[in-house]
Amino acid sequence: MDISLFIDKVRLALLKRFGKKKKGGKSFAAWQSRGYQNAPEVSVIIESHNKSLQVMHVVEKLRQHPSIEIIVIDDGSDKEHTQRLAEGLTRGNEFLVRANDLYENVMYNKTIRFAQADIVALLQDDDDFNNLDWLTEAIALMRKHPKMVFLGGMDGFDVKFLDGDGKAHTKEENMTLPLEQIQRAVAGEILSGDGQFRFVPAVNRAPMFVNRPLFMQYIKNIPYDLAPFQYDDYEVCVRAWLEGLQVGSYDAHFHSLSAGGMRLWNNAFTQEQVRRNGPVIYEMYHDKIDSIRTLVKQSNNAL
């Protein structure tokens, strides 16, 4: 046994036998005072990388909601940011999940399962808002449309899954396209409008609301084949339509605190993922988008 481990073992044994009760130690009253809720109305998951100041700024606002769970993913941050989050997330419904550069795909997958509420909001570390109206509106929309598994608060996309010249190429051929062309092919075009709620083929993060029971039953996973990030949000949306579910978009009126921490220092990595995942998405869904558009139109006509 390592000598330091042995010394600590002896110390703890002596403390257990002779030590005094720690001041302010654990008790039922102390546990109860933290206000843990077993059935919060909404769980908010925030992905963070070296953005602890911005995240705690947002957490203070989220705490105004009377029935909320807050889960922060500290994904590969420097120690000072991990420490700040650990010291700041002190309430019963606040959790810190530490990861080592697993990025959005893997960690959103894991924390959606960790969350307690049926409605989950996925945020990123550059998101900010003035009040909680966006949250109240989103919860109402999720309840009004029980087949809606995803609700985006930014732009809705009419995903094209076509390359720039409109021809259907193989995955290998698409990988040789210019970067901008791949981005246009996958993201399609932003749907214009007045900011009112509507059904759309796809939305991106964030905020992105998830109906967790529908997600667990039908979607099951954000695709690990697209890990660690890029276009996996589009993939789950178009797959949702093919599963008989719906995807909606509304205006959450978010504004950005700064560039997102996960992408701030990873521009080259992002471009690599565009080239890697863009052709994969194209290969999976380019022949299904017309069917998806029909389902979206039918859903909007029924509003």
What characteristics describe this protein?
alpha/beta, 3-stranded antiparallel β-sheet, 8-stranded mixed β-sheet, about 300 residues
Describe this structure as you would to a colleague:
The chain has 303 residues and is an alpha/beta fold. The protein has one domain (37-301): Spore Coat Polysaccharide Biosynthesis Protein SpsA, Chain A, CATH 3.90.550.10. It has 13 helices and 13 strands. Strands 3-2-1-4-11-6-12-9 form an 8-stranded mixed beta sheet, with helices on both faces. Strand 2 (68-75), helix 4 and strand 3 (94-99) form a beta-alpha-beta unit. Helix 3 (52-62) runs parallel beside helix 4 (79-88) and helix 8 (179-187) crosses helix 12. The longest helix is centred in the last third of the chain and has 19 residues, at 267-285.
Uncertain residue segments: none
Q: How many structural domains does the protein architecture include?
A: 1
CATH class: Alpha Beta
- DSSP, total strands: 13
- The CATH architecture category equals Alpha-Beta Complex
| CATH homology group | Spore Coat Polysaccharide Biosynthesis Protein SpsA, Chain A
Amount of beta strand: 15-25%
- Shape summary: globular
**Helix content percent band:** 40-55%
Structural class by secondary-structure content: alpha/beta
| CA-CA gap between termini | 68 Å
The description of the largest β-sheet is: 8 strands, mixed
Radius of gyration: 22 Å
Order of SSEs: HHEHEHEHEEHEEHHEEEEHHEEHHH
- Strand sequence of the main sheet, in spatial order? 3-2-1-4-11-6-12-9
Number of helices: 13
Q: What fold name goes in the CATH topology slot?
A: Spore Coat Polysaccharide Biosynthesis Protein SpsA, Chain A
| Mean pLDDT across all amino acids | 86
